[in-house]
Structure to design on (163 residues):
């Protein structure tokens, strides 16, 4: 992993990013309805995140995208709360600390845009993801926030952004 870098998504990354996300969702057995799998945004993530308070990042290793994640305002609570969105890593990217690096990149961006809290939705069986979220200060919520449309995601977490 010597040529590893985290960078902002570019238009030419769209197809590869969609493949990464869908491959991980299929691998994890995620329902294709009521989750990110069916989001129309997956096919043009670059355009989806062209907004002053949104950004999507990719992890590239030797010209191959191996992970990705984004920050966007949470629908219904746009002023204060952002959402960590579509954070997925191919198997070769896992267990190397890249999740922590990506989380740090995303949360720094969120803070720089004036968000006070960051929200995440995930699935109960995504244990490694939940472990990373807890490690970086996210706490479980009793019910969902905002309006994501991901009714099959039944684990909700929130973190206050310091500084």
């Amino acid at each position: 992993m010597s040529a590893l870098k985290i960078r902002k998504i570019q238009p030419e990354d769209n197809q590869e990013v969609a493949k990464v996300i869908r491959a991980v969702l299929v691998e994890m057995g995620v329902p294709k309805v009521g989750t990110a799998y069916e989001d129309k945004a997956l096919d043009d993530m670059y355009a989806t995140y062209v907004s002053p308070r949104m950004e999507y990042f990719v992890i590239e290793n030797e010209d191959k995208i191996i992970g990705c994640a984004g920050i966007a305002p949470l629908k219904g609570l746009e002023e204060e709360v952002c959402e960590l969105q579509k954070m997925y890593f191919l198997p070769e990217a896992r267990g190397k600390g890249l999740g922590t690096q990506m989380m740090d990149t995303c949360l720094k961006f969120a803070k720089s845009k004036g968000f006070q809290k960051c929200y995440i939705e995930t699935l109960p069986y995504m244990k490694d993801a939940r472990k990373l979220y807890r490690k970086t200060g996210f706490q479980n919520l009793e019910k969902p926030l905002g309006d994501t449309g991901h009714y099959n995601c039944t684990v909700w977490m929130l973190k206050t952004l310091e500084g």
Summary: The two ends are 32 Å apart (CA to CA). Residues 98-112 form the longest helix (15 residues).
